[in-house]
Amino acid sequence: MTQQLPHPYSQYKMTIGIECHVQLATRTKLFSAADNDAREATPNSKIVPIDFGLPGMLPVLNRRAVELAVKAAKALNADVALESRFDRKHYFYPDLPKGYQISQMYQPIILAGYLDAPLESGETVRVRIHHAHLEEDAGKLTHKDGYSLVDLNRAGTPLIEIVSEPDIHSASAAKAYASELHKLMIYAGVSRGDLYHGNMRFDVNISVAKHEAKALGTRAEVKNLNSFKSVEKAAEYEFKRQVDLLESGGRVVQETRGWDDTKLITISQRSKEDAQDYRYMPDADIPPIRLTSEQVNEIQANVPMLPFEYRNSWKELELDISVIEALLSNQSYAKLVDEIKQTSTNAHARRVAHWFASAIRPEDDVTVQQLSALKPAGFIELADMVEADELSSTAAKEVFSELLVSDHTAREIAEQRNLIQNSDEDEIATIVDAVLSDPASARSIEDIKAGKDKAIGYLVGQIMKLSAGKANPALAQKLLRERLR
Amino acid sequence: MKTITEYLQSGLSATEMVKQALARAKQVADYNSFLSLTEERALKRAAQIDSGEISGKLAGVPFVVKDNMLAFGAPTTAASVMLKDFHAPLQATAVEKLEAEGAICIGKSNLDAFAHGGSTENSAYGVTKNAHDTKRVAGGSSGGSAVITALDVVPFALGTDTGGSIRQPASFNGVVGIKPTYGTVSRYGVVAMASSTDTIGCFTHTAADADVVMGIMAGRDANDMTTLPNFWNEKSNSVKKSLQIGLIKETMGDGIDTEVQAAVYEYAERLKGAGHTVREVSMPTISYSLGMYYVIVPAEISSNLARYDGVRYGYRSQNATSLEELYGQSRDQGFEMENKRRIMIGSFVLSSGFFDAYYQQAQKARALLCSEFDELFASYDLLLSPVSPTPAFAIGQKTNDPIQMYKADIMTVPASLAGLPAVSVPAGVSSTGLPVGAQLIGPQKSDRLLLRLAAQLEKGA
Amino acid sequence: MTKITREDVLHLAKLSSLELTDDEVTAMQDELTEITDYIAMLGGLTTEGVEPKYQVSGLENIYREDEPQTSSVSREDLLALSYATSDDQVKVPKVL
Q1: Residue A3 — very low, low, confident or very high, per pLDDT cuts 50/70/90?
Q2: ipTM for the complex?
Q3: Which CATH number do you get for residue C12?
Q4: In the predicted model, is pLDDT for residue B173 greater than 60?
Q5: How many domains does chain C have?
Q6: Which residues 401-420 in chain B show a CB within 8 A of chain C?
């Protein structure tokens, strides 16, 4: 008998660094006053001569983009560079109208930082941010039979590129990082975070090496992933591909790979051997950005509460991690729960948190926001009613669902739907006694006395029937038990 | 009729002024100083002025625009094949501002393609001839505008100056040429050469006219982040009775034509005669300025010319079957040799492994040069030097020797690198009858002082 | 003296997207050698501790407010400048 060897995968560790392009929530482009929202636009309808790279056109920097970068720095626990500059990155491609992309190579606006990404296990993984910089997006190519078409609507859209350190060592951590980054950018108001429209795109650098190895392996870069799931799946796939390659005597080549979202595989695109020389050069068309600490503080003071701040705030609510993360997937819900915690009791906040957590459907994108409509008062009132035994938990959920979309108060809704339960002990005692004295109950009473506790259900049912469904079932049961003791 | 004032006081209608200028332009066609005439549009605008529809400080005064500035009425070619048929859908801010004051553009002038050169021999549309000797170069790159002004076609013509492209042809053709402080006039709508030194200026017969034209073009433009708030309209004092003027020693030594030196010394004497003090000063770093210039400027050129790729506009090679061929062929065929040479140098100094040694070193050297200017301006109001080592040279003399051609820029590049205003003024005439200019350089925003001083000396001349 | 090789020229030409003719490559090789030799003079300057001067205007913090503006130049004006268009887009040979 041969002894089973450990699977080779277990001998390897993966190391991942992620570059994420975040589209900023501005109205106009980074360097032109063209409308930045090209979601439903026809080709080239959102361009001005700057975006077309016309001779003699010059960039004019969008103040809001700089402010959003400063906000992003806060979300990333990073310092803002008080002096930053723009540089040109040169390469020829039809979607790049000037023959260079304006970016920040030498003096980026966001310096080193970190984020703590929560894992499903309840642990967190700290991923350091190397830096983040402002840059403009390129246009879009459509490939036809024998030719390609250039649409420059997206050219010049403001981005920040967030570059992580290679601190990620599992596919699930990669996903957690991407997801936390997404939340941070939305909460800070930096991005709309619309993944469907490519508001955040991830380039994942992956290498593998044996646990005992001192150096990292050769890395491959999987470009343009636009969902957390694809980040996770691509990392899983690459890990196996690279280990299989090494185990079969091959070597990993440094290259760019694409992701096939249907086949769930990565595909080689371009080898780094013919790597570009981008000839970065400071852009003399754009005077430097110089900020004071006061200006930075002032801008960052407007950053709303961030996911990690909510998590801290909610520690005393002793919520399950799945409830916390479900709540955090919708900023308006998180905000509301926290407001209730601040203005009411922890018990109320906890109750409301559970309502919200169960109300969020998994397919809801975090971008589905109803920021303005929801007010804490209605939910506090609802919690009060539950606490006062005026509503059953089932009835409370019904009122809650209605409260999300209704202008009425919790009480109005409960009354309209006839959901308020009777918790008057005397009134219910009368009904209890009536049921107990009903001959039809005799069998159940005997069963209960014989230890068949389930039989109480029938009696409670009868009480509910007699009370037209309004009796507080818990109270009814309590009174029943007292009498049958 | 030479000066703007003479035009304005001539009693001629705008239509008459424009017709006269157009006729003169056609009369001097042999100089090849025009790439196009904007006749139809000019006459239309003249009619609008005559009917009172448009008015302004320069109502009806004809002018010419260097053909690397976007303007209506004719293609903007930058004297290249690349932009042969490029009809601009908008106009440069400088042109717009002049038109808003009623000036009328009658045509576009020849230049070295994309303004790369110092002789207007690099034009895809033939050499421009010197106004004083048709066997000699006009200078460049704004050669066409200089010659057009010198030949009295119009009272002023626009040029761009990145390393001497206004001052040197002004000197070669005996007119006033100003390169203003970097950022004085918007670069919006001007075909970019080197973003950190490109300036827009003009050619005139008098310093007073230059003051008028620059005053109209100057000012902050929301479309160009590098424009300075308008300092032209700041109330400034008249020329001090006695200015301290430094004559830069390093520009008056070996390799500088003795007749050029003589003309500059003579100008220095006239300055003294007007009550100013002229003393020799030394700028050791100036000998490195050409080295800096021919690193920084090609780097910026290689970048700024990357947009000419045959994709969205401009020349596209007909034979290209792949994207790579489209790029390579369109750019090879659309650019002149000098364009390609500078793009290649630029790519070289920016490429990995060379960036620090060349590009960064040049930008640091530039900082040293700027400090040296600052130190001098602590003691001197302005500086004096020749414009060019020689008067206009013969056509073809330097075309096969790019380095020799580059070296002719030695006097003009320092002010460009430091963003300083500099004026080329007629200072003398060589034994063969060629004009020789002198250059006044001042600290940033001293443009008007330079022009006032030049005007003071014009009166004395 | 840095000798610029033919390979160097071809590499730079590729970076620059210039499909140079053979004659141009030959000419460029000599000229670039001469020019790089000339600009190497900068090595003679001591620049330790000197901050590079990329811009000379002294300006900083120049911004535009984040308000969309329509241009006087339309999509049609821009596309009219193109050699080939289709479906309101610029047409290029197939990008592989």
Answers
A1: low
A2: 0.97
A3: 1.10.20
A4: yes
A5: 1
A6: 402-403, 406, 417-419
Q: Which domains does chain B have, with CATH numbers?
A: 1-461 (3.90.1300.10)
- CB contacts, 8 Å: C83 with chain A: none
Q: Which residue of B has its CA nearest to C51?
A: B364
B192: chain A residues, CB-CB within 8 Å? 55-56, 58
Nearest to B340 among C18, C51, C54 (CB): C18
Tokens of A95: 């979607």
- Which pLDDT score is estimated for A367? 41
Helix (H) or strand (E) holding B22: helix B14-27
Question: Which residue, among B94, B100, B208, B247, has the nearest Cα to B161 in the 3D structure?
Answer: B94
CA B140 to chain C, closest CA, distance in angstroms equals 20
pLDDT tens by residue, B133-153: 999 999 999 999 999 999 999
Per-residue confidence at B461, pLDDT binned at 50, 70, 90? Answer: low
Interface probe, candidates B225, B290, B344, B356, chain C, greatest C C-beta count within 10 A: B344
Tell me if residue B317 is catalytic.
Answer: no
Instruction: Quote the mean pLDDT of chain A.
Output: 92
Is position B379 annotated as part of the catalytic site? Answer: no
Beta bridge partners of A127: A115
Q: Which amino acid is at A107?
A: Q
Q: What is the pLDDT of residue A469?
A: 81
B194 contacts on A by Cβ (under 8 Å) = 284
**A34 and C71: CB-CB below 8 Å?**
yes
pLDDT at A4: 65
Q: d(Cα B71, Cα A348) in Å, to the nearest integer?
A: 70
| C93 contacts on B by Cβ (under 8 Å) | 320-323, 325-326
B365-387 per-position pLDDT tens digit: 999 999 999 999 999 999 999 99
The dihedral built from the CA positions of residue A341, A345, A347 and A352, taken in this order, carries a sign that is negative
Cβ <8 Å between B348 and C93: no
* Position C77 in a domain: no
Distance from CA of B315 to the nearest CA of A (A): 13
Residue A368 pLDDT = 41
B354 touches chain A (CB under 8 A): no
Edge-to-edge order in the sheet of strand A140-143? A140-143, A147-151, C89-93, C85-86
Average pLDDT value for chain B: 96
> Which chains pack against C, by 3+ Cβ pairs within 8 A?
A, B
Q: Per-residue b/e over B72-111, b at no fewer than 16 CB within 10 Å?
A: bbbbbbbbbbbbeebebbbbbbbbbbbbebbbbbbbbbbb
Query: Which residue out of B141, B171, B430, B446 is catalytically annotated?
Result: B141
Q: Which of B228, B344, B358 lies nearest to residue C32, judging by beta carbons?
A: B344
B171 in catalytic set: no
Average pLDDT over residues A34-58: 96
Q: How far is CA A408 from CA A373, A375, A414, B64, B221, in A?
A: 12, 12, 10, 73, 55
Token pair 């403009």 is found at: A136
**Beta carbons of A98 and B306 less than 8 Å apart:** yes
Chain segment A246-288, per-residue pLDDT in tens: 999 999 999 999 999 999 999 998 765 556 899 999 999 999 9
**Separation of alpha carbons A453 and A447, rounded Å:** 7
Structural domains of chain A, with CATH: 8-293 (no CATH), 305-416 (no CATH), 425-484 (1.10.10.410)
At residue B126, does pLDDT exceed 90?
A: yes
A229 pLDDT higher than 60: yes
pLDDT value, residue A403: 86
- Predicted confidence (pLDDT) at residue B209 exceeds the cutoff of 90: yes
